[in-house]
């Protein structure tokens, strides 16, 4: 019988945080909330705390780091948006606590550091992203003979749109299959999100970038695949519902308690896959280049992208200029080692300042 688990949720008022609370609320015999942290939405946090019967709450990055270290926690869900979640991830791993990671930026900006700390303390990193959770399920019990890891991308709202010059924030936020927060939705529209996931997969599964592929799968039913040396392929298919990977992460290594209806393949019919159009969506190749460069390059890529996406959402940058701005900043960066937190945060701060300074010039292109 599975034991009760004490859960801390960082970023509890966001999309993943709210769905994690729904999973926990559905299984009070398995999970107990012992800590909640939000970015700035105090009213929503207070409501969540009262509903969960949790008095250990906080706002902001400092509170996230403190609760990530909690001796009471069996598992920390990091659902903070952006590189602001890195310190908390490191804190949880330093404490030896299982980290259910929805904050992909932790491994993008600080992958070398996070994996090193996890190895030293024995802390497990369990993926919450649907793609990485899918790959992890395919690899369960079979890690030898892996040829390729394949991540699927929906293609976003502009998969078939040729002219992207006049894209508005409202256009880019209209994702065809997933309901997510604004930043990750824009990243999905540029395919930067998939580039960040490639870097994340490199660290999570310990494979080279030449062993990680991306294919477009518009219906978002197959979330990840693994090709083995003997020619066989294992794939994970499920409805596009984040409750499924969240529940699996909360229960890890036990079986997930979430009961979702299985896909009816006779009703679905064909499963379509397409190659990525790298010319229209250069973000994926740019992210792969940053990952292969290693060191501080991924942190710079990520920070520049956060600033550029915010500018686009504010109406101050064209959609097509997001990746242009990131590319220029990455090209101007001298890569350094990223094996300690301060080096990563220094690179992050440099990238934000450099991108902010560059935006007026890029906005005129």
Brief overview:
46% of the residues lie in helices and 15% in strands. By secondary structure, the chain is of the alpha/beta class. The strands form 2 sheets. Strands 3-2-1-4-5-6 form a 6-stranded parallel β-sheet, sandwiched between helices. Strands 8-7-9-10 form a 4-stranded mixed β-sheet, with helices on one face.
Number of strands: 10
The main β sheet shows up as: 6 strands, parallel
- Globular, elongated, flat, extended or rod-shaped: what is the shape? globular
Mean pLDDT: 95
* Helical residues, percent: 40-55%
- The main sheet orders its strands as 3-2-1-4-5-6
The residue ranges in which pLDDT falls below 50 over 5 or more consecutive positions are none
What does this protein look like?
The mean pLDDT is 95. It is globular, with a radius of gyration of 20 Å. The chain contains 15 helices and 10 strands. Helices cover 46% and strands 15% of the residues. A 6-stranded parallel sheet has the order 3-2-1-4-5-6, with helices on both faces. The chain has a 4-stranded mixed sheet with strand order 8-7-9-10, covered by helices on one side.
Give the SSE map:
Elements: E1 5-10, H1 15-26, E2 31-38, H2 42-52, E3 57-59, H3 61-68, E4 75-78, H4 86-94, E5 98-101, H5 105-121, E6 125-127, H6 130-139, E7 146-153, H7 169-172, H8 182-190, H9 192-205, E8 212-216, E9 222-228, E10 233-237, H10 243-251, H11 265-268, H12 283-293, H13 297-313, H14 321-331, H15 341-363
Parallel strand pairs: 1-2, 1-4, 2-3, 4-5, 5-6, 7-8
Antiparallel strand pairs: 7-9, 9-10
Helix pairs in contact: 1-10, 3-4, 4-5, 5-9, 5-13, 8-13, 9-12, 13-14, 13-15, 14-15
């Amino acid at each position: 019988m599975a034991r009760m688990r004490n859960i801390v949720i960082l970023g509890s008022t966001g999309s993943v945080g709210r769905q994690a609370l729904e999973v926990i609320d559905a299984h009070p015999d398995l999970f107990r909330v012992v800590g909640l942290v939000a970015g700035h939405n105090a009213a929503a946090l207070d409501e969540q705390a009262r509903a969960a019967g949790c008095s250990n709450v906080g706002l902001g990055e400092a509170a996230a780091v403190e609760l990530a270290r909690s001796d009471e926690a069996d598992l920390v869900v990091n659902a903070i948006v952006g590189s602001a979640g890195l310190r908390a991830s490191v804190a949880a791993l330093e404490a030896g606590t299982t980290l259910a990671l929805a904050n992909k930026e932790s491994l993008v900006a600080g992958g070398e550091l996070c994996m090193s700390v996890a190895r030293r303390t024995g802390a497990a990193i369990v993926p919450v992203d649907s793609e990485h959770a899918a790959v992890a399920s395919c690899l369960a019990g079979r890690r030898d003979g892996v040829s390729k890891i394949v991540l699927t991308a929906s293609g976003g709202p502009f998969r078939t749109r040729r002219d992207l010059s006049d894209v508005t924030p409202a256009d880019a936020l209209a994702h065809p299959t997933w309901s997510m927060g604004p930043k990750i939705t824009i990243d999905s529209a540029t395919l930067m999100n998939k580039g960040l996931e490639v870097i994340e997969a490199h660290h999570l599964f310990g494979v080279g970038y030449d062993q990680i592929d991306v294919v477009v799968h518009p219906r978002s039913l197959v979330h990840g695949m693994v090709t083995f040396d003997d020619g066989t392929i294992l794939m994970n298919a499920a409805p596009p519902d984040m409750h499924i990977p969240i529940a699996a992460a909360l229960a890890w290594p036990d079986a997930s308690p979430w009961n979702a209806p299985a896909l009816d393949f006779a009703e679905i019919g064909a499963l379509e896959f397409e190659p990525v159009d790298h010319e229209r969506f250069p973000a994926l190749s740019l992210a792969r280049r940053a990952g292969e460069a290693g060191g501080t390059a991924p942190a710079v890529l990520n920070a520049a992208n956060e600033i550029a996406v915010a500018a686009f959402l504010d109406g101050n940058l064209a959609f097509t200029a997001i990746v242009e701005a990131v590319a220029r900043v990455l090209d101007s960066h001298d890569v350094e080692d990223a094996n300690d937190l301060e080096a990563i945060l220094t690179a992050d701060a440099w990238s934000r300042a450099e991108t902010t300074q560059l935006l007026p010039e890029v906005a005129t292109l």
